[in-house]
Amino acid sequence: ANAPHKPTDGFVEEARHEQEVRYKIISGMVRDFPNQVGIAYTPDDMRRLHGEGKFAIFISMLNAYPLGNDLNQLDLWAARGMRMFGFSYIGNNAWSDSSRPLPFFNDSTDVLEGLSPIGQQAVHRLNDLGVIIDVSQMSTKALEQVAQLSRTPMVASHSAPRASVDIPRNLSDKELQLIKNSGGVVQVVGFPAYLRPLSQPTQDKLNTLRARFDLPPLPNLAMALMPGDAIIAAWPEQRFGQYASALYGILEEEPKATLKDLGDAIDYTVRKIGIDHVGIASDFNDGGGLQGWENVGEVRNVTAELIQRGYSEADIAKLWGGNFLRVWDQVQKAAKPLANR
């Protein structure tokens, strides 16, 4: 993994450029292969494209960082088809605190105590635009503020319960409850490190690495999964880069979590907040994938695991997108036409 850079104007420009490139790829694909793929602008589009045997592209954006301080960027992207928006990724930004602040970005935890004023305005703007708010990477305080401010259901697009692995990136029982109370959905993600705590041999290797870099033994699992110690803020970029790549190298050797771990996390979430508020997510492009669910081709194995656990066909349909489509529908119905904004 490359060392992230401290945010600068040039870096924001680069991030914005990357967004444009991705959008061009998506629109080009849809233009060139209309018989195979289409953009789903509404839940009905999703159902229609599925019925036609086509791939449905759902445009979502994670991280307000490339938008600078421009709320109107949300209108632009909604007009382009963005239907879900998450405020933060790794590292706090000008809109929201992240559940994974990075000291190397000069983040300390909860810099904004949740959302900044533009972040708070963004909640209302997204409600008006009919865009789903994705709370998956937010700090607890930011998520609580979205719960207070939003008049539409929230979605955690790819998260796991803290009962599986106790890290801030996962959702506490209280956060699960807030999402349920909003009418929303928690999509339990097939991401190994969020579903099963790191094995002792891996933790031992990480502690050996930490000693080499003059860091104390692991204080918690969150520090095992990312370079998050406060002292790292003082390191030169090269040292940070060396540590980060060694850390991620060790994590890659950890045996993957299994379908049983995913099933346990789904069971737990269903027990806590009910079958109508749970979904399933993959994260294949960012280190996701489990033993038995390494890629899209193995999706049926997840369904088999659910059947084995006694989920009915109706429940499985809810988990595989029914609940999400219901929420998407509600969010779109709550949008306000331009004239009323």
Could you write a compact summary of the structure shown?
With 341 residues, the protein is α/β, with parallel strands linked by helices. 47% of the residues lie in helices and 10% in strands.
Describe it for me?
Helices cover 47% and strands 10% of the residues. By secondary structure, the protein is of the alpha/beta class. It has a domain at 1-151: TIM Barrel (Alpha-Beta Barrel), CATH 3.20.20.140. Strands 3-4-5-6-7-8 form a six-stranded parallel β-sheet, sandwiched between helices. Helix 3 links the parallel strand 3 and strand 4 (82-86).
- Main sheet? 6 strands, parallel
Give the class-level CATH name of the domain at 1-151: Alpha Beta
**Structure classification:** alpha/beta
CATH architectural type of the domain at 1-151: Alpha-Beta Barrel
Distance between the termini: 43 Å
Main traits of this protein?
six-stranded parallel beta sheet, 341 residues, two-stranded parallel sheet, 47% helix, alpha/beta, globular, TIM Barrel, 13 helices
